[in-house]
Write a structure and sequence with these properties.
The protein has 502 residues and is of the alpha+beta class.
Length: 502
């Protein structure tokens, strides 16, 4: 027979009830958290925004809604900003038809403040963004533009004081009196001695003609003396045409003997800039041996921008600022051509350099002095110059910036002249133009793309019920605009849109 079983009641371990309660509380909490996350992402749980505020995505400005949430494209938390307002005309006009294009962050401006630059539109930036980039503005003022402006100049040799010492005969250099470049030579100073068979032959002809002019028995008729005198003069002239100085020809006549070497003399005083001769080197006719220049007076060639040509002329006063000395001068000549590469005209300035403070090849600052004129002026940093168009961003207040094409004139220091496009008192952006420019171009591109997308086929209405979920349709269209031409990124963006009904 089987033994009877023991049916004693089981005892519950201590703390099991508490653990069960805690477990169910965790399950309920996780469920509530998941439900709250879904409701928050759809905007059903979020508090309604205050009147006059809206929420947008900084990375995708076309995503705008009236309650907090996440961007359906990049899942960034939407940023709150003041709602864009529109300017209502005096007479009522019918409301425009609802558009399926993504909303824009651009404020509507008055009719007199439309953009005049192709590819740009007026934009609105939040106060936080303008403060983050340190945006600064300045007013367009009517005041005298600076009476002078600075440019760059180069010191060169005065061409009128340059001399080239060259040989007119064939020979060989036997001695040099100038050791190196930079030495100073005086006028008629001997710089070299050259042996030349041609010059020696000419000297012998001269001495022979002189000997024939004085026959031993004398010339009773006088005819021989006339002939030989002509031969002597012709021999002297030949030596001078070969480059022998008159003083050296007289020395040959007085000595009555042929000199082996011919002295080469400097035609003018100055500094030796170039030396091509060396002891023992050969010499050919027309070969430059030395280059000498008087540096007591030099030229400064200053580059004048093409737009500033009308501001200066001959005799205009200038100031030359060198590394050692600052001197005053005047414009001596404006060269009659414009450099096609730099688009500048060169102005020649003559300055006194007896102290030797300026050397050829040195860069100097040139301050061109002109008469100040009363004109519209704005800071140079406010100008955006793309090469094709020049414009500035006008601040209309409340974070609204309008791109406006301008025509500029002369520049002086940090200021620039405004010929047209702006009026006195306009406020322009001077720091942070890059942000406003990029935002304006982005909005212009989105507007153009939105128009193209609205006219093309779209499956957003098929995927979402426009009447029940208008914001989902709007986000879907934004995906088509922003990621157009990026392969599968359009579909990935659409798949990222929350679908709580699934």
């Amino acid at each position: 027979m089987t033994e009877p079983r023991d049916f004693r009641p089981l005892t519950v371990p201590p703390g099991a009830g508490v653990a069960a309660v805690v477990r169910w509380l965790i399950v309920v909490g996780l469920g509530l958290l998941a439900a709250g996350s879904v409701l928050w992402s759809t905007g059903l749980l979020a508090d309604k925004a205050a009147v006059g505020t809206e929420f947008y995505c900084p990375m995708h400005p076309q995503v705008v809604q009236d309650h907090p949430g996440e961007c359906p494209i990049c899942h960034m938390t939407l940023v709150e900003r003041p709602m864009a307002t529109t300017t209502t005309p005096a007479t009522a006009s019918p409301a425009p038809a609802p558009s399926s294009a993504p909303p824009s962050t651009t404020k509507r401006l008055p009719a007199t403040a439309t953009s005049t630059v192709s590819g740009l539109v007026p934009v609105t930036l939040s106060f936080e963004r303008t403060q983050l980039i340190g945006m600064k503005t300045a007013k367009v003022e009517r005041r005298p533009l600076g009476a002078g402006w600075k440019t760059t100049g180069v010191v060169t040799v005065d061409e009128r004081r340059r001399s080239v010492i060259e040989a007119r005969f064939t020979g060989f250099v036997e001695d040099l009196s100038v050791g190196s470049v930079g030495e100073h030579v005086a006028r008629d100073q001997i710089v070299a001695r050259v042996y030349s068979p041609d010059v020696v032959a000419a000297e012998q002809e001269l001495l022979l003609a002189i000997a024939q002019a004085q026959p031993p028995g004398g010339d009773k008729t006088g005819l021989l003396g006339t002939v030989t005198t002509g031969l002597v003069d012709a021999a002297k002239q030949r030596l001078q045409l070969l480059g022998v100085a008159a003083v050296d020809v007289d020395a040959i006549v007085q000595a009555g003997t042929v000199t082996r070497t011919v002295p080469i003399r400097a035609p003018a005083a100055g500094t030796v800039l170039r030396r091509n001769a060396a002891r023992g080197s050969s010499v050919q006719p027309g070969m430059p041996l030395f280059e000498v220049a008087d540096l007591g007076q030099v030229f400064v060639f200053a580059d004048v921008a093409e737009r500033d040509r009308g501001r200066i002329g001959p005799k205009a006063p200038v100031k030359i600022i060198g590394r050692i000395q600052t001197v005053d001068g005047v414009v001596d000549l404006l060269l009659p051509d414009v450099d096609t590469a730099s688009r500048t005209q060169r102005a020649r300035i003559v300055i006194d350099n007896k102290a030797g403070a300026f050397v050829p090849g040195e860069f100097v600052d040139v301050v061109l002095q002109t008469t100040a004129a009363l004109t519209l002026v704005m800071p140079r940093e406010a100008l955006v110059d793309t090469g094709d168009v020049q414009y500035a961003f006008v601040d209309h207040g409340n974070g609204t910036f309008e791109p406006r094409a301008v025509n500029v004139g002369v520049r002086s220091g940090d200021d620039i002249e405004i010929l047209s496009g702006l009026a006195e008192g306009d406020v322009v952006v001077t720091t942070g133009n890059f942000l406003v420019d990029s935002e304006s171009r982005l909005q212009a591109s989105l507007s153009a793309a939105s128009a193209a997308t609205a006219s093309s086929s779209s499956d957003c209405e098929r995927q979402f019920d426009a009447a029940k979920y208008p914001q989902k349709v709007e986000a879907c269209r934004a995906c088509e605009v922003v990621h157009r031409g990026m392969g599968t990124m359009v579909q990935d963006c659409k798949s990222a849109i929350a679908k709580p009904w699934r």
